[in-house]
Amino acid sequence: MSEMQATAMKTARPVGIWGYGAYVPRYRLAATEVARVWQGGKDHLPIKEKAVPGPDEDTVTMSIEAARNALARAAIDATQLGAVWVGSESHPYAVKPSGTIVAEAIGATPYVLAADLEFACKAGTEALQMALALVGSGMADFALAIGADTAQGRPGDELEYTAGAGSAAFVIGPADGCLARIEASLSYSSDTPDFFRRNGQRYPRHSGRFTGEPGYFGHVLPAARALLESLGRTAADYDAIVVHQPNRKFPARAAAELGFSPEQVKLGTLVDQIGNTYAGSSLLGLAAVLDEAEPGARILLVSFGSGAGSDAVSLVVGEGIKERRNLSPRTRDYLGRRVPIDYALYARYRGKLATE
Amino acid sequence: MALQLSREWRQRVQRYQLVGGRCSSCGRLTFPRRPVCPDCGSEKTEDFRFSGRGEVYSYATMYKAPVGFEQDIPYVVALVKLAEGPLITAELTDVEESDVSIGMPVEAVTRRWREHGPDGPIVYGYKFRPLLRPVSPG
Amino acid sequence: MSMLKGNDVYIIGLGAVPVGEHWNRSLRDLAVQAVRAALADSGGAKPGALFVGNMLAPYLSDQEHLGALVADWSGLRGIEAVNTEAACASGGMALRQGYLAVRSGAHRAVVVLGVEKMTDSVNGCTTAGLAMAADAEYEAAVGLSFVALNALLMRRYMYEFGARKEDFAAFAINAHRNAVGNPLAMFRKPIDERTYMGAAVVADPINLMDSSPVADGAAALVLADAETAEHLCSRPVRIAASAVATDSLALQDRRRLLELDAARLSAERAFEMAGKGREEMDFLELHDAFTIMSVLSLEACGYAAKGEGFRLGSEVGRSGRLPICTMGGLKARGHPVGATGVYQALEAALQLRGDAGACQVVGARVGMTQNIGGSGATVVTHILEAV
């Protein structure tokens, strides 16, 4: 039990979100399908359905589309970006950054930082923290942070119900001109092996209920509480909370324990419709909230990544949001675009059928 | 076919950003960019970035694929008439064959084309899909 | 034989292997057999050069440098030899080169060979090889096969002109019927409309009966000048015209998608060179790689207005107004790609000699062959005339 006094992180100059973008593939695998194949149809279902990437999609392609959507809202030229950072646990290459491919595709090269992050489901918000720092320090005027995943679920494992695919991208810039201002952020990390994957292994291992208390709640709650306390705030000061969403229950319980009402967590919780999009999860929830939020709304974002850690960010929506959010597809445009597939097609698309 | 790293790499911006050419003399647009304008014969051409909007001009469904494209079978290929004029050849994605029609509006996206084996580079490029959001007037 | 004119070029020898799957014959085996047969048929011509037409040997057989290889293996070591490649028009192009060599006076007699060995490779490789006739960067690289390109043409044609699938049946049926008496043909049984309509889809709207079969083949001709022809041959066939035109490789770059400009240009040049009108052709050996190509070729050569070609289906039989593919065409005789152009010329020569047997077009005096590379990027047209 640490006695450390937590202080919120604040940038040297004020920063904010200039643009945000989402992407979710169109295919959906119903949890009932997973249950049908592995449990004879009987099982408790943690979500309704999850998003499945098509055979021509991966973390890079999804990042590119989310990034293009974010840039359109930001209305800046990609060459103004000082960094393109992609957080994922399913980068297509083990060595060769998704970041450079995305940067080239959106036209941000060559004078740009481009790299990959890995921190399980919080690699995206880790990139976000770095973007806040790069812009906040004055090293660059704009930075792009992306969380994207097409993480694999081990066939027959309980996480197969929820391992989904999606991405969200955020352009960070100076607060003056942004559509949502960052108030402060805070990160909470520890060496906790609740879910991990060794090099060369195809599927991750996880430790069941250990992922809950010492894992998820053991980081989400302290991070959120520390940030709130540091800012002298409570749940009542917020219009919405977005929490990492590995299933239906965890974000609901975390929000409740932090004093938030079901209404405050509802808008940013998409897991029932698209599953756990891993590094895209909390960022997609944030995009969904920004799609609807009114100027002046205050939002608390709390991510979680196994391994383990949580990033908490407090932000306030600005006037600019109303016109700029129409410049790109909304999160619900992607959610509404759904094509149900069966387990066989899912297994084929996800490369689970050995052809040699 | 042998792995050709630099050949794929050379094409990357054209493939990611749909960059073709414009004749500086007569304004004729082409995809790809050509060293000699097919209309006026001028050698003065410059890069031109297409918007990615277009419509299906013709299409066909493939059930047997060339090496490297098997994972997409069955897939629809099309000649797309770009909004700016030229025709481009590409796969369609995120669409069933039965939903494709000549004249259907489409937009460009960047997707995986193929990989050069499980340990070779992944090639990304342009494909076209039905509009995610219908175009609203004005 | 005073009909043989000074610098004209004559076909004086024919030789070929049947088109098919020759598991026991290699590329060079097939080549040698055709060359030796043509030389024997020529009455002992001594060629000064060998022109080989082949497309896929480098990709499917790891073999380039076919000119020297075939010359040596055919017992012609030392003569001039070269391979010409123009995708599926390689054979026609070899004939063109042979024609130029004799016409120019560079050689008194030459051998023209078209050879292709396709059955050693597996499907994916054959498809990839054929796609090299298309634009590698903008058609093959984006995932299209050669069949798909023709399917794009067929679908657009049907959309613009209201042609239905069944309107193309006559072209496939005609080809198969015409192959019945051709010992060189791969398929020698007739088909009917039910077979055509019920065939497996390859790339919609193209089905198996729209598509010519790929296979192994080798066909050779001996060309000679007038003096040599007079000396050696009792039934020479005169090459009255030889013309080549090109177009963009990629369909997307065509002036008009459904107009084969290269076919039109090379046909026009050939008619002019021969001093003959299109109505004087007694038969056409068209490049029916796919039924849509027959239709577009007929329009390009001026036998039908744009969009009307499909209506000629009932007129293209051997006893019709406009006989095409008189010994099976690519569809039934087969399409060993680089060799096809020489098979076309060989069949035309058989017709003009009166040696086509059960396939004879009665009274044939003048015939046209048109060999197409890719989806229309190279077109080689020859007009042959009985002497």
Notes on the structure:
The complex is a heterotrimer of chains A (356), B (138) and C (387). Chain A has helices spanning 31-39, 59-74, 98-106, 123-136, 212-231, 249-257, 262-266, 271-274, 281-292, 321-324, 331-335, 343-349, and strands at 15-23, 27-30, 49-52, 81-87, 113-117, 142-149, 166-174, 180-192, 195-196, 205-206, 240-243, 298-302, 307-317, 339-341. By secondary structure, chain A is α/β, with parallel strands linked by helices. Chain A folds into two domains: 15-178 and 328-349, Peroxisomal Thiolase, Chain A, domain 1 (3-Layer(aba) Sandwich); 180-323, Peroxisomal Thiolase, Chain A, domain 1, CATH 3.40.47.10. Helices cover 9% and strands 40% of the residues of chain B. Chain B has a five-stranded antiparallel beta sheet with strand order 6-5-4-7-8. In chain B, strands 2-1-3 form a three-stranded antiparallel beta sheet. Chain C is an alpha/beta fold and 387 residues long. Chain C has 14 helices and eleven strands. In chain C, a hairpin with a 2-residue loop joins β5 (201-203) and β6. The chains are: A alpha/beta (356), B mainly beta (138), C alpha/beta (387). Chains in contact: A-B, B-C.
